[in-house]
């Protein structure tokens, strides 16, 4: 027989599904499976670079993960609380159409709400919008982009006249001053931050200013860090403008020629003196003057900003106050200058383009504008579209909790993790009589509340377009067939829409959904933009096949426009930009004597949103392994809280329990919890039986009156020691094709503890970790169940059990000759041995020398166990201990020592996401002293 010829992988150009940078990727596939991914060197958003998340996309698409995590067939829950059963697509869509039609007939179309996602493609978004506003006649369709970008939308419209970011990524390369506000770009937008690092190397005179309460890795690398107090952004920006006016650093000629409303703004900022602003923001006056001078006098200043400004009860004012600075100094409409909002999701911009928000219509039309409504109705062939304002995200779930909205259709998002005030969200999901979840992953918390589950395609399987932060439209292409019975989101909506039309008496020849391809949807969306600020009627799928393009792209254009307003003309009635005389506003709930800590939230470097995708990979938990709350060391010492000790964090809305960790990056009287930790990874119950479900059990649903974006970034909290004396730690290596399923089963047990966290770990192998605590020892049956799930109960296990003292230890060993390695551990009642037993397991070190100590409570071995420390480099699995040890042997300048480190350990030489951390360690670790 001839030897089999290896199959050469196919290559498909597509786009990363994570942040709004919009990186191009090349997907490698063979035999219908994704086998690899790399950055697309021809894509202008990333030029071949990928971050830790993007570079591991192929691992999240493995067959083992698909079998354990993906929703593969429609599922119907006959009664709440019961397990769902599989049904066919026809039955599922008929069920959905019948129930929506009945609810609309009996209670009106506004009894239905659609909650969709910035991770949908533009084509998906368009048909959802048409289904709700066109066919059903309700404006109750909103998106999770409301939680991240609506303040940026409102800020642009208030000042510049349209939701159109005026700058582009190329401006980073040409800026002389970068002003980053409310963004930890080093973690949230790593590839964009690589470009910033590269630009600073090429332009050593460039100044980087970072305004952020925390000393993040982005702030750590800045020339000037402004650690302002939470919520004081408007006061800061007004204070900078006050100084610019006083010092004569504004551009009076540009203001006179291209703006209006400056006198009203001057009256507001007159009171924002350096002394007052320094006190209100917690900053030094000298730093205010430095920031104002660098911003105003640079040849070109570019601002980059994100959720720190947007997720606020005064988010629109914060955005507008920053844009005011650009208008006052003429820093807009030219290379290297302008206010550039960084979108958090891959297609938040595309959703805005098609009107996928409750207050918008297609092509940036306003729902409140009768002429705009008439234009859309004519395009869709309808007599009218509804004028009644739709419910925005927070309002929609409140209305469902109150019984006003009776059906919720949720697509590609996980509100049971991501929405603020989780008690209200869960009440809404329980009270709504019909909940549909259209989702790729079956493991999200929202799936538990669904009456009907519809399997959707995801990255690597979808076909359409997305728009990134710089208005660049990229193609998303399928590399492999959809698994199971999963369908494209646009196709699900079209099939549902046609069924609803049949029930509503609309004949097929008059269908609103005449699409058989995503390109047909896109062509209609394209036509809706004709003559609008985002006109793309000169663009086609064929042109997008050649290269991504920015909008606008009108007929006759050879390429899209890189930056806007170069002629100084703005899309307002007067053609002038408008200064916004916004007033500083207090936080929705300032800290006080009852809730003395300011809790802020944000992203981790290696995780994405609710972690339905990244949370399937243990290697992405190397940098931050488990949920925690970060506090200033002084605050922990003052309250007698040791590192790793459990604390109860309480706000007006609820409580959660989790470990505390000291962080010098955290200011005093402030605390930080990553936004990713939902009930899938962190949960428990109170003494009264109330479920404590993730970080958003704490956050407030108070929102900006203009953008309706909630203040997810800040809540006033109380932090106290949690008196939970009985603790449990269980972790084990498991087969790749069962580990995720085991974790899902363990998550079902987490609510039997006051505190529980369950996460994956491991790089080349799949591990699962469960940590828990309670007032009293857990029932033996519960411990037996955990043992069985982690495969610790077999003959290979060593066991110590003392029911009277509530203690148990089980160690599973794998033996090879004389050598033994720890494969799994359960410690109940006494978990002090974690310090040495866990490294033995995770680093797969020989364990035979530890003998009986493996079972001895409280024992500390004489043989030290080497510890890698926190992971710094995900690509090459390099820990902090190895890096600091190597740096101690390196001499020379910081640049030389970094190069020596990279040459030896390779860290920071692949995706570059760890470079800010490496640079920080280079500064911290003293160099090797050369002999005289």
UniProtKB/TrEMBL annotation:
Q: Which cofactor does it need?
A: [4Fe-4S] cluster; Mo-bis(molybdopterin guanine dinucleotide)
Top-rank taxon: Bacteria
SMART domains, A to Z: Molybdop_Fe4S4
Q: Where are the transmembrane segments?
A: none
Which CDD domains has this protein been placed in? MopB_CT_Nitrate-R-NapA-like, MopB_Nitrate-R-NapA-like
Which InterPro entries did the record assign? Asp_de-COase-like_dom_sf, BFD-like_2Fe2S-bd_dom, BFD-like_2Fe2S-bd_dom_sf, CT_Nitrate-R-NapA-like, MoPterin_dinucl-bd_dom, Mopterin_OxRdtase, Mopterin_OxRdtase_4Fe-4S_dom, Mopterin_OxRdtase_prok_CS
For the keyword Phosphoprotein, the answer is no
Q: Does Transcription appear among the keywords?
A: no
> SUPFAM superfamilies under this entry?
ADC-like, Formate dehydrogenase/DMSO reductase, domains 1-3
Q: Which family does it belong to?
A: Belongs to the prokaryotic molybdopterin-containing oxidoreductase family. NasA/NapA/NarB subfamily.
PANTHER family (UniProt xref): NADPH-FE(3+) OXIDOREDUCTASE SUBUNIT ALPHA, RESPIRATORY NITRATE REDUCTASE
Q: What is this protein called?
A: Molybdopterin-dependent oxidoreductase
């Amino acid at each position: 027989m001839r030897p089999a010829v290896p199959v050469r992988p196919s290559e498909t150009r597509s786009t990363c599904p994570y942040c709004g940078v919009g990186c191009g990727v090349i997907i490698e596939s063979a035999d219908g499976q994704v086998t690899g991914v790399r950055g697309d060197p021809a894509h202008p958003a990333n030029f071949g670079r990928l971050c830790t998340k993007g570079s591991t996309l192929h691992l999240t698409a493995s067959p083992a993960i698909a079998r354990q995590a993906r929703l593969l067939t429609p599922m119907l829950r006959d009664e709440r609380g019961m397990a769902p059963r599989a049904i066919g697509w026809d039955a599922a869509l008929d069920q959905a159409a019948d129930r929506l039609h009945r609810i609309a007939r009996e209670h009106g179309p506004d009894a239905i709400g659609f909650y969709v996602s910035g991770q949908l493609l533009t084509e998906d978004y368009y048909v959802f919008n048409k289904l709700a506003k066109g066919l059903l006649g309700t404006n109750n369709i909103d998106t999770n982009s409301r939680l991240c970008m609506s303040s940026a939308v409102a800020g642009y419209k208030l000042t510049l006249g349209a939701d159109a970011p005026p700058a582009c990524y190329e401006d980073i390369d040409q800026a002389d001053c970068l002003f980053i506000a409310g963004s930890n770009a080093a973690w949230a937008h790593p590839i964009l931050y690589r470009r910033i690092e590269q630009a600073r190397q090429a332009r050593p005179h460039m100044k980087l200013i970072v305004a952020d309460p925390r000393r993040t890795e982005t702030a750590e690398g800045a020339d000037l860090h402004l650690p302002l107090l939470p919520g004081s952004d408007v006061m800061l920006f007004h204070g900078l403008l006050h100084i610019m006016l006083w010092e004569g650093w504004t551009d009076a000629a540009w203001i006179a020629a291209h703006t209006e409303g400056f006198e009203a703004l001057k009256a507001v900022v007159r009171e924002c003196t350096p002394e007052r602003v320094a006190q209100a923001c917690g900053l030094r006056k000298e730093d205010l003057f430095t920031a104002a001078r660098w911003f105003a006098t640079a040849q070109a200043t570019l601002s980059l900003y994100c959720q720190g400004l947007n997720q606020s009860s005064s988010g629109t004012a914060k955005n507008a106050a920053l844009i005011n600075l650009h208008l006052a100094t003429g820093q807009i409409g030219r290379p290297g200058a302008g206010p550039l909002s960084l979108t958090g999701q891959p297609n938040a911009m595309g959703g805005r383009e098609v009107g996928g928000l409750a207050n918008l219509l297609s092509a940036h039309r306003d729902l409140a504008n009768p002429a705009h409504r008439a234009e859309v109705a004519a395009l869709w062939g309808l007599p009218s579209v509804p004028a009644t304002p739709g419910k925005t995200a927070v309002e929609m779930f409140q209305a469902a909790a109150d019984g006003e909205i009776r059906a919720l259709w949720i697509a590609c998002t996980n509100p049971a993790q991501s929405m603020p005030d989780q008690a209200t969200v869960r009440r809404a999901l329980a009270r709504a009589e019909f909940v549909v979840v259209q989702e790729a992953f079956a493991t999200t918390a929202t799936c538990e509340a669904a009456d009907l589950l519809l399997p959707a395609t995801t990255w690597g399987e979808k076909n359409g377009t997305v728009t990134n932060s710089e208005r660049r439209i990229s193609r998303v292409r399928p590399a492999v067939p959809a698994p199971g019975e999963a369908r494209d989101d646009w196709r699900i909506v079209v099939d549902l829409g046609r069924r609803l039309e049949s029930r509503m008496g609309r004949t097929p020849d008059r269908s609103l959904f005449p699409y058989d391809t995503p390109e047909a949807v896109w062509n209609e969306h394209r036509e809706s933009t004709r003559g609008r600020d985002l006109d793309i009627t000169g663009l086609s799928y064929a042109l997008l096949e050649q290269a991504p393009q920015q909008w606008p792209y009108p007929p006759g254009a050879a390429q899209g426009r890189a930056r806007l307003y170069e002629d100084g003309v703005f899309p307002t009635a007067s053609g002038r930009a408008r200064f916004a005389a916004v007033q500083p506003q207090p936080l929705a709930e300032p800290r006080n004597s009852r809730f003395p800590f300011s809790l802020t939230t944000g992203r981790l470097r290696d995780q994405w949103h609710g972690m339905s995708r990244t949370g399937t990979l243990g290697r992405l938990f190397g940098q931050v392994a488990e949920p925690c709350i970060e506090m200033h060391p002084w605050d922990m010492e003052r309250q007698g809280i040791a590192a790793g000790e459990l604390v109860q964090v309480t706000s007006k809305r609820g409580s959660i329990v989790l470990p505390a960790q000291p962080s010098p990056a955290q200011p005093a009287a402030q605390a930080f919890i990553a936004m990713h930790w939902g009930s899938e990874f962190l949960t428990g119950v109170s003494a009264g039986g109330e479920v404590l479900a993730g970080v958003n059990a704490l956050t407030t649903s108070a929102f900006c009156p203009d953008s309706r974006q909630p203040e997810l970034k800040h809540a006033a909290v109380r932090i106290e020691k949690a008196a939970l004396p009985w603790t449990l730690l269980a972790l084990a290596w498991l087969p790749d094709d069962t580990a995720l399923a085991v974790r899902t089963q363990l998550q079902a047990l987490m609510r039997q503890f006051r505190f529980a966290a369950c996460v994956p770990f491991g790089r080349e192998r799949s591990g699962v970790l469960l940590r828990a605590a309670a007032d009293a020892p857990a029932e033996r049956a519960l411990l037996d169940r955990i043992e069985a799930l982690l495969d610790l109960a077999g003959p290979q296990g060593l066991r110590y059990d003392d029911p009277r003292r509530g203690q148990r230890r089980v160690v599973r060993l794998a033996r090879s000759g004389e050598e033994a390695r720890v494969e799994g551990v359960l410690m109940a009642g006494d978990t002090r041995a974690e310090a040495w037993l866990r490294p033995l397991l995770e680093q797969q070190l020989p364990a035979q020398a530890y003998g009986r100590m493996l079972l001895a409570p409280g024992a500390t071995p004489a043989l030290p166990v080497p510890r890698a420390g926190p992971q710094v480099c995900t690509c090459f699995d390099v820990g902090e201990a190895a890096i600091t040890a190597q740096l101690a042997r390196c001499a020379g300048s910081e640049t030389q020592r970094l190069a020596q480190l990279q040459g030896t350990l390779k860290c920071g030489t692949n995706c570059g996401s760890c470079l800010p951390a490496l640079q920080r360690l280079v500064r911290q670790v003293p160099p090797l002293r050369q002999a005289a």
